[in-house]
Design a protein that fits this description.
With 174 residues, the chain is mostly helical. The protein contains 10 helices and no strands. It is 62% helix and 0% strand. The site of 1-[(4S)-2,5-dioxoimidazolidin-4-yl]urea (3AL) has 15 residues, from helix 7. It comes from Daphnia pulex.
């Protein structure tokens, strides 16, 4: 774990190697905010990434969502997820789904992607498998604009938890 002073001392390459995947496969997020050092604390770091995501045009937001792997999808089956995503999917209990649950998630993931053109994204660490299955069925009813917005908000939650696993959350600096 790093404290914020050490984070602020990292050169660009080291910053990217530490923070390049706080948004899945989107090292551009870390690359974009590096210039905003010094960061006051981990929340400030998170806020900068959130602002960067909010400023993206819809096509960029869709691209960010598209870089996320399906929950319990093909990459999970192949063991080819990023380390972060593997741990998150496990925390939600997605590795212990019954065959029926797996089938439901697979089918709804396909329907979701067909309807919206990007994958269903949810912060797995904050949801157990039951909530994820309920969530995807409910979210299938939304409009694309609503889902783009909800998906990016979930990316921000995933990002905060990833940041908190790298940087000490020193509230005394706040
Ligand atoms: N599809 C999807 O939500 N994937 C993500 N969710 C999460 O918590 N980690 C992921 O990779």
């Amino acid at each position: 774990m790093l404290n914020i002073s050490l984070v602020n001392e990292l050169n660009y390459e080291d910053f990217i190697s530490r923070f390049g995947n706080v948004v899945e496969h989107c090292s551009i997020c870390a690359a974009a905010i590096w210039r905003n050092r010094p960061f006051r604390d981990v929340r400030h770091l998170h806020q900068e990434i959130c602002s960067f995501l909010d400023l993206l045009p819809d096509t960029g937001k869709e691209g960010v969502l598209r870089l996320h792997p399906d929950l319990a999808g093909r990459l999970a089956e192949l063991g080819s997820l990023t380390q972060e995503s593997t741990a998150e999917q496990k925390a939600a209990g997605l590795d212990t789904m019954t065959p029926g649950e797996k089938q439901l998630l697979r089918e709804t993931n396909i329907k979701y992607r067909e309807k919206f053109g990007f994958p269903f994204v949810i912060c797995a660490r904050q949801n157990k498998k039951e909530a994820i299955l309920k969530g995807i069925v409910e979210r299938l009813e939304h409009s694309a604009a609503e889902e783009l917005n909800i998906g990016i908000e979930e990316v921000k939650k995933i990002c905060l938890l990833r940041l908190l696993s790298i940087v000490i959350d020193d509230k005394s600096h706040m």
